[in-house]
Design goal:
By secondary structure, the chain is α/β, with parallel strands linked by helices. The protein has six helices and seven strands; from the N terminus they run αβαβααββββααβ. 38% of the residues lie in helices and 20% in strands.
Length: 206
């Protein structure tokens, strides 16, 4: 059995007869959260899982400019935490047809109601940088999750992946390196230094 299949089997067993089972998949920028979430989604029973990306709650660039936070986009303070918390509470309550915003990196903005969680979806895979951040208000999310995964990737590899990410999105090399140094790396350090214990730690991308 592959590692991802083993993780899926553990989640399935832990969930038992629960109507909703919420899994947090956390890690620093570039750790591979989206990849692992998608892979896990595909090995869970068909039609039973949905992915909820925290990135859908990025404040728009216009708002960040008004607040003087544009240069720190991606830091915990640049997300609509309250909106994200309400969404997780609705999911936990088992509400049907919950609309979820999805961040479109090609446009650098969130698309409202870009995904919908149907009433019969059992496994909710929530992925984001700060799901296990041990700071207020993020620490309030702890009770929302039934199972937590943290992806721990070496800093050098994270930096390599981020350089490739920004290159793929059309940023010049010099601009990308400056952004990584001033924004991405501080966020990485914050995630690594101030995280709560996870049920499972992966030291590589599956």
């Amino acid at each position: 059995m592959s590692e991802i299949a083993h993780i899926a089997a553990s989640i399935f067993k832990r969930a038992g007869k629960a109507g909703r089972f919420i899994v947090a998949i956390a890690g620093p920028p570039g750790a591979g959260k989206s990849t692992i979430s998608a892979t896990l989604h595909d090995v869970l029973p068909e039609g039973t899982a949905a992915i909820v990306p925290m990135d859908g709650f990025h404040f728009d660039d216009v708002v960040l400019e008004q607040r003087g936070q544009r240069a720190r986009k991606g830091a915990p303070e640049t997300f609509d935490f309250a909106g994200f918390e309400v969404l997780l509470k609705r999911i936990r309550a088992g509400e049907p047809d919950i609309a979820v915003p999805v961040f479109d990196r090609s446009m650098e903005l969130s698309r409202a109601a870009a995904s919908v969680i149907a009433a019969d979806i059992k496994f909710i895979l929530v992925e984001g940088n700060y799901l296990l951040l041990d700071e207020e208000p993020w620490s309030r999310l702890g009770p929302m999750f039934d199972f937590t995964i943290f992806i721990d990737v070496p800093r050098a590899e994270l930096e390599r992946r981020l350089r490739q990410r920004w290159r793929d999105h059309g940023r010049a090399e010099e601009e990308a390196l400056a952004w990584i140094a001033s924004n991405d790396m501080p966020n990485i350090e914050r995630v690594l230094a101030r995280r709560r214990r996870a049920d499972l730690v992966l030291d590589h991308e599956l």
